[in-house]
C-alpha cells in the first residue's frame, strides 16, 4: 500500500484522502495512518507546489551549479554539502558522478544576485575547488510536469 500511496501523492499531493482510499480499495483511516507514519519516518519529507514563475509574471533566476570539492576525512562530502544546503538561497544539493562532485540548485531575483552568491559564498568555502554555473533559460518539464506549450506542427506546404 505504501508504494501506491507514494505514487499517487507524488503526482498530486492535494488528493483527497477519501478519494485515495477508494482508489486503493481501503478505508480512509488506513490511508491517513499510513501517510502520518511515512511523515514521521521522513519517507514523506514535505509537500510542494510547482509554480511557473514566468506565467506568474515574477522575475526569478534559477541556476544549476556544478561544484568540485575536497571531501573531508571521515565525513566524505556530507559536511561540505551541509554547509551549502544551509544557505536559504539553495533549493537543492545532490552528490553526483562525473567531473564535479555536487550539483547545487539555487534561485535569485537576478543573474547578478546568483553570480554574487557563487562568488561571495560558494567559492570562498575552503573545500570548494571549482564551480561551473549553468543558468536555466527555459523549463520544458519539471518534477514530471510538462511546463512548455506543445509545439504546433508547421502546416505550410513544401514549395519547390
From TrEMBL:
GO biological process, one term: response to amino acid
Signal sequence annotation: none
Matching SUPFAM superfamilies: Dimeric alpha+beta barrel (SSF54909), Winged helix' DNA-binding domain (SSF46785)
Coiled-coil regions, chain positions: none
HTH asnC-type domain sequence ranges: 1-59
Transcription as UniProt keyword: yes
GO molecular function: sequence-specific DNA binding
UniProt KW keywords: DNA-binding, Transcription, Transcription regulation
Superkingdom per UniProt: Bacteria
Keyword Membrane (UniProt): no
GO cellular component, one term: cytosol
TM stretches of this protein: none
Name the record gives this protein: Transcriptional regulatory protein AsnC family (AsnC)
The species this protein was found in: Agathobacter rectalis CAG:36
Amino acid at each position: 500500500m505504501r508504494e501506491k500511496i507514494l505514487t499517487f501523492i507524488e503526482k498530486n499531493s492535494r488528493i483527497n484522502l477519501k478519494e485515495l482510499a477508494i482508489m486503493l480499495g481501503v478505508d480512509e483511516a488506513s490511508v491517513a495512518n499510513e501517510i502520518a507514519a511515512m511523515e514521521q519516518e521522513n519517507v514523506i519529507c514535505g509537500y510542494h507546489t510547482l509554480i511557473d514563475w514566468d506565467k506568474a509574471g515574477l522575475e526569478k533566476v534559477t541556476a544549476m551549479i556544478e561544484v568540485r570539492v575536497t571531501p573531508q576525512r571521515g565525513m566524505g562530502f556530507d559536511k561540505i554539502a551541509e554547509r551549502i544546503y544551509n544557505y536559504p538561497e539553495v533549493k537543492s544539493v545532490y552528490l553526483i558522478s562525473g567531473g564535479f562532485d555536487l550539483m547545487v540548485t539555487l534561485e535569485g531575483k537576478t543573474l547578478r544576485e546568483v553570480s554574487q552568491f557563487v562568488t561571495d559564498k560558494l567559492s570562498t568555502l575552503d573545500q570548494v575547488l571549482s564551480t561551473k554555473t549553468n543558468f536555466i533559460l527555459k523549463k520544458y518539464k519539471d518534477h514530471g510536469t510538462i511546463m512548455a506549450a506543445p509545439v504546433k506542427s508547421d502546416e505550410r506546404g513544401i514549395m519547390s
